Amino acid sequence: MTIISTKGTLDMAYPPFILASTAAALGWNVSVFFTFYGLDLLKKKLDLKVSPLGNPAMPMKMPMGPEWLRKTNLPIPNVLMAGIPGFETAATSMMKETLKQKGVASIEELRELALEAEVKMVACQMTVDLFGHDKADFIDGISEWVGAASFLPTAQKADVNLFV
């Protein structure tokens, strides 16, 4: 299985690590190519945020308060989210609290599980160069620092290819 991870937000960090670690647990060979903002998921220090702006499918739920409020989707229009200072910080805090209350592993924990399961973490060298990243800021365990031309033959041979 190959996965291409392109997004570096908290909500989009979960799919590649959950899918990769699950497939590896099933005995699959898995490679994840982290490119553009997805490359941030391989940094030692993570500061991931959730951005509800531009994501109309994302419900806003309160992680605290009475049961009826926690189960209620709060339909907040994107135009309103954009105009409220600190909305992204509040949404991130609510998401982190909900993940904690539900016992969902952190991104750091899922990433470590994937590495322990021998998932190959492949960093896009072109993105490193483009954004001026310092390789010292990234975790140990990155299998390769390559471009798309080097990763695509791996994807071509895979039975399952996912883009997240």
From TrEMBL:
Keywords: Membrane, Transmembrane, Transmembrane helix. It comes from the Bacteria. The chain crosses the membrane at residues 17-39. The keyword Ribosomal protein does not apply. InterPro entries: DsrE2-like, DsrEFH-like. This is DsrE/DsrF/DrsH-like family protein.
